[in-house]
Amino acid sequence: MTTPLSGLRVIEMGTLIAGPFAAKTLADFGADVIKIEPPEGGDPLRTWRTPEGETSVWWHVQSRNKRSLALDLKHPEGQALVRRLAMEADVLIENFRPGTLEGWGLDFETLSRLNPRLIMLRISGYGQTGPMRDQPGFGVIAEAMGGLRHITGEPGRAPIRPAISIGDSLSALHGVIGLLMALYHRDVRGGQGQMVDVALYESVFNMMEGAIPEFDRFGMVREPAGSALPGVAPTNAYPCADGQFVLIAGNGDSIYRRLMALVGRNDLGGAPELASNPGRVKAMTVIDEAIATWTRQRSLVDALQALADAKVPAGRVFTVADMIDHPQFLAREMVREVSLADGSTLRVPGITPKLSATPGQITSMGPDLGQHTTEVLRAAGVSEEDIHRLRESAVIA
């Protein structure tokens, strides 16, 4: 089956989440991704969170469809090998602290002289410029600096974070967008390669909607609002009789009227001052209490059925246990069962987005450390004698 990025040659020098997630996204759609890892231990993600034996099951998601080249980037001969590979590559991805590649002679200026068509994605905490460029940056810090942590949680309580590395993943996706635009400029517009500079905090900041103009014009600082959405009403999580919560999005004008009829509050549904969102925002507390009074008398299942009958958007809070066998997830192949090298099977996330003519594919799971070292170097023209010598001196594994 044809994949949209078939033939695209990618070198991944990232570790953990942001760089590897970007490379995984390209690999899902056919790019040939060579993942460079340190010979001793490889990418730390190999053992993060929930290892089975010596390998994390997360590894099989983050590194699927990739080839592993175990190579010491700190060794001059290892650096020379990267320059050799970069001469034939389309894309290079890295997420080291700014200045690291420069110290290794692998910076964009050096590599682009060898290969003017090379596109380099550089993901870091604060970007390649500015007074904070040299500071180490992690997702949790970026999420706070970008504004997400301040608005997450309950009013008056300590800020909370989602239990995933959302700042890293958002940066990876911004990086993929930048790479695809750079590839379009190069291959369609006839341009050359370029550097794509992604900062973790900026990727989070880009999700902050109207926060900047709201502050500039009105001095408004967006605050945490629990399960509600500030400035939009009604939309919230409402308690049910069985201790669960139903999420209701009744903020469309006609939807709001149907919702008020359902909960027995036509007085609120027909009030002229509540006919549009600005008026409802002012009365959010009253409206939310009317809805909650209705949901508290019903189980989650009964509430969802009634809301569906009234054509009011609603849903439940899903855990992974709810997702893994859910008909919608299965119909869309968002949970896939794959075979591992040891013959066991593992359920993993499917591929998104869905392309009708050239969909992505899962062709292999996370490789063993250095599984493709010899294969990659042979293809680059490195002799068998040099491969043996480099392995003996621990430059490769």
UniProtKB/TrEMBL annotation:
SUPFAM superfamilies: CoA-transferase family III (CaiB/BaiF)
One GO MF term attached to the UniProt entry: CoA-transferase activity
InterPro entries in alphabetical order: CoA-transferase_III_domain, CoA-Trfase_fam_III, CoA-Trfase_III_dom3_sf, CoA-Trfase_III_dom_1_sf
Origin superkingdom: Bacteria
Pfam family, one: CoA_transf_3
Sorted UniProt keywords: Transferase
Listed EC numbers: 2.8.3.22
Protein name: Succinyl-CoA--L-malate CoA-transferase beta subunit
Native species: Pseudomonas fluorescens
Source species taxonomy: Bacteria, Pseudomonadati, Pseudomonadota, Gammaproteobacteria, Pseudomonadales
